[in-house]
């Protein structure tokens, strides 16, 4: 009896490595692009929370003021309010350039302006691009340009660079710190300022790889290492958003002379501690009046 023929060997597949279909590849590219756009949108809207509507008027302070339009080097128009020093104040040459936080607009900083004016100095409130009545859309490089535009206006108005106080609140702390590395100022004042966006973001979203994802830096602490003027840091231990250790880290990075003073209240309420703000700023100005001009960029 003949033995059965052995089974024929199976033919090897012509293409052992299957290439992904073009349609699948296209979907992957599309989904990756959409994810990237969503991440950038989320980052932007977590950092910037501008409002266009004014909730208060500068007339409420009962002080003279000027309604201004500043023009940036890239052609945008920024809205600002300038409050000259009262009467014949011996501190009239001093001016506070206020870089506000990430939310609202200058109409929400009138109590802070009032506290600064009470020390006998002038005050300039300005809105970054995309805030209030200012044109454009905010981003890190743009806000740095905006602060330098405000600084230039004060100098043209007659305030000596060595009499300009760069004041930064929260996000504005990074902007004011950067300004102090680029332009000569008398001193730097930080209120509720974080060390950097990656530092803050990793604390607020510990389950996300924030440091690998964010492109925006606002590195206050790094800027401070290059600032060579007196630094006053105001921060509340009750700040639930920007914890007090940010103030301590910023203070450690700053060069002397420097001061760390405590405010009261939560992150958004600490600016209402106008009594402590007024006292601390008054102390700083007295120091500046009795000390030779500090180094500047």
From TrEMBL:
Gene Ontology terms, MF aspect: hydrolase activity
Protein name: Alpha/beta hydrolase
Pro residues bias (residue ranges): 1-10
Listed InterPro entries: AB_hydrolase_1 (IPR000073), AB_hydrolase_fold (IPR029058)
Start and end residues of each AB hydrolase-1 domain: 97-219
Region (Disordered): 1-22
Species in which this protein is naturally found: Limisphaera ngatamarikiensis
Domain of life: Bacteria
Keyword field: Hydrolase
Keyword Hydrolase: yes
